[in-house]
Design brief:
Number of helices of chain A: 9
Low-confidence stretches of chain A: none
Radius of gyration of chain B: 27 Å
Mean pLDDT of chain B: 75
Strand content of chain B: over 45%
InterPro entries (chain B): DUF6230
Distance between the termini of chain A: 46 Å
Low-confidence stretches of chain B: 1-34
Largest interface: A-B, 56 and 64 residues
Number of strands of chain A: 1
Protein name (chain B): Cholesterol esterase
Helix content of chain B: 10-25%
Keywords (chain B): Membrane, Transmembrane, Transmembrane helix
Shape of chain B: globular
Order of helices and strands of chain B: HEHEEEEEEEE
Largest sheet of chain B: 8 strands, antiparallel
Radius of gyration of chain A: 23 Å
Shape of chain A: elongated
Distance between the termini of chain B: 48 Å
Mean pLDDT of chain A: 81
Oligomer: heterodimer
Order of helices and strands of chain A: HHHHHHHEHH
Structural class of chain B: mainly beta
Helix content of chain A: over 70%
Number of helices of chain B: 2
Chain lengths: 150, 232
């Protein structure tokens, strides 16, 4: 009973994941979180530095938000990922070299994945199966099976 | 622009599922993958964004390494070491203080989340052979800069350190001010705390253990960022 419920939840999650750029959004959210973690400067100091210091917090927060938006509103993924990649690159200047480079890397990767994602694709064909099929077709053709091939 | 890159890879991007896709290939694949249609990342489409983004990131890194572009730092909550062979600054202040870590920080240990620190503020500083390392448990993240002819410059540099050593020389130093009356670097400490300030400062063989550092703008010529077994 519980086993079936779990399988149902997993299938539901699988289906939910299939309908959105899951890894892209997740990576971007994580990147924003990572950069915020490396900062953690006391708020007093941030107030002292002023607007520039604030930007150091604003950009990673925006990154995390965009990541969540990609996950929960995937139809707008182009806008989110374009803004996300610009903001991710901006953190290099404002937030500890983009969270010591790690956050920047995750963010840009996430945005590229979200940008390149398309819904409703054919299932993936591994290169090996594709090659095998090609060989099978090449073998079949000389036997005079052209008529039935298509 | 957004729709163009997926056009050339027609091979397996039929827009509507029922338009007679080549028979053998999808059938075999469908049995393998359970036969459902899922969203998926198209490599060529992702590359449209990945290539320019990589170029821009590389450009930023190069500009920073040349010292043409300033970057901001705000670090705290974990101890890290900063060393420099030479520090020259104008507008120097120093006073005691208490740093609070974030609630439930794993770095707190038995300190109750508070660290006694010396806050140093320097309005404009140039540092020679800057080296900064953070212990990440086992490995160290090492940032070095300013080893070449051009030095690292920082403005609005504020550090909270637990340890500070070096050969220091001050010019026009005032010792024993109240921390709330400081004027030289634009930072004010808590009232009733001992402090000192000076017009210029020179520290040779600087070594600091910091808990927090912020700089309005850091220029890091010759920037190198790498992981290493040993710290600075």
């Amino acid at each position: 009973m519980s086993d079936r419920a779990r399988r149902g939840a997993r299938a539901a999650f699988r289906g939910w994941r299939a309908r959105r750029p899951f890894w892209g959004g997740l990576l971007l959210t994580l990147a924003g979180g990572e950069i915020l973690l490396t900062e953690k400067a006391s708020l007093k100091v941030v107030m002292h530095i002023g607007m520039q210091g604030l930007a150091g917090y604003l950009l990673p927060t925006v990154m995390a938000l965009l990541g969540l938006l990609i996950l929960f509103n995937p139809t707008q993924r182009l806008f989110y990922s374009l803004t996300g990649v610009l903001v991710s690159l901006g953190t290099w200047l404002t937030s500890n070299l983009g969270g010591f480079f790690l956050g920047l890397l995750l963010g840009v990767t996430g945005c590229c994945l979200a940008f390149g994602w398309l819904p409703d694709q054919e299932p993936r064909v591994s290169r090996r199966t594709r090659r095998k099929e090609e060989r099978a077709r090449a073998a079949a053709v000389p036997e005079g099976a052209e008529g039935t091939a298509a | 622009m957004a729709s163009s890159p997926d056009v050339p890879s027609v091979g397996n991007t039929p827009e509507n599922p029922g338009n007679g896709s080549p028979s053998e290939v999808p059938q075999a694949a469908a049995t393998a993958a359970g036969g459902e249609r899922r969203g998926r990342v198209r490599a060529r489409r992702a590359a449209v964004m990945a290539v320019p983004a990589t170029l821009v990131a590389a450009g930023l890194a190069v500009l920073t390494a040349q010292g043409a572009l300033g970057v901001q730092f705000a670090v705290s909550g974990m101890p890290f070491t900063v060393t420099a062979t030479e520090l020259n600054g104008t507008g120097f202040e120093q006073f005691g203080g208490l740093d609070n870590m974030a609630e439930g920080s794993p770095n707190a240990g038995d300190s109750g989340g508070q660290v006694l620190v010396v806050t140093s503020a320097i309005k404009n500083a140039t540092l020679d052979h800057l080296c900064q390392s953070v212990d990440l448990g086992g490995t160290n993240l090492l940032i070095t800069a300013g080893s070449g002819a051009t030095k690292v410059t920082a403005s609005g540099l504020t550090t909270d350190s637990t340890e500070l050593s070096g050969d220091a020389a001050f010019n026009n130093i005032e010792i024993g001010n109240d921390a709330s009356t400081l004027t030289k670097a634009g930072v004010k400490g808590p009232i009733g705390v001992f402090s000192q300030q000076a017009d210029t400062v020179h520290i040779g063989n600087l070594r600091q253990t910091n808990y927090a550092t912020t700089a309005g703008v850091f220029k890091l010529p010759g920037l190198k960022l790498r992981f290493s077994d040993s710290g600075c």
